[in-house]
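Q: Give me the 3D complex with pyridoxine-5'-phosphate.
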Amino acid sequence: MFLGVNVDHVATVREARREVEPDPLIAALLAVRGGADGITLHLREDRRHIQDSDLIKIRSKISIELNLEMAATHEMVNIALKIRPDMVTLVPEKRAELTTEGGLDLIKGRKKIKKAIDMIQGSGTPVSLFINPAVSDILISKDMGAQMVEIHTGLYANARGGQKTAELDRVKKAIKKGLDLGLQVNAGHGLNFTNVKKIAAIKGLRGLYIGHSIIANSIYMGIENAVREMKQLIEISSSK
Ligand code: PXP
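A: Here is the predicted complex, encoded as structure tokens.
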């Protein structure tokens, strides 16, 4: 199973002091050594962590899949068309949020999202929609022509007790529907070294996109080891 490593929070530490270190490019290169299959960067409109210069540098130095996470805005679509990442994941963005809080609102945002999909996929770059684990959102994603979806696992990650089983069930149903419709289906958000196991065990998933927990644990064990451990955990869980 594919593991995309999000290195945004390396830039969060750097931006806390407006310093030059730590460098997300070095983190990305070490993540590759640890077995990452892809690198994700979220270029937020407020540039709170990843900067345009990080994207340019990493695009030119990394040969594994580069996934650009971005809002479906005019500015970001133009950047994607210029930089040409290997894939784009469209996410909702709110300025005050600490992190992406949920999947895209495919009904309210339909026009903007559809335009972004058409322009980016028209240029040859596949688009993934970050969506809530709902069958209705899978149907809309397919209808809009996206090649891929990423199912939001944050609610599952945060759920407690019986709610956890219910959330896992919603994730599984959404994945199955996506696969039945011929979409490539990924999952991500809020996954860590414990809760990743049940998600990685879901059959048919193309990959997982993980950031915070890998970067947090790399403070203790180094990013190369943190990626390697996560990759092993995913492999063991997905082969059961
Ligand atoms: N997938 C998407 C679409 C995201 O927005 C994020 C967070 O940037 C992630 C995955 C990774 O989430 P986390 O940092 O919680 O692992």
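A quick observation: The chain has one domain: 71-238.
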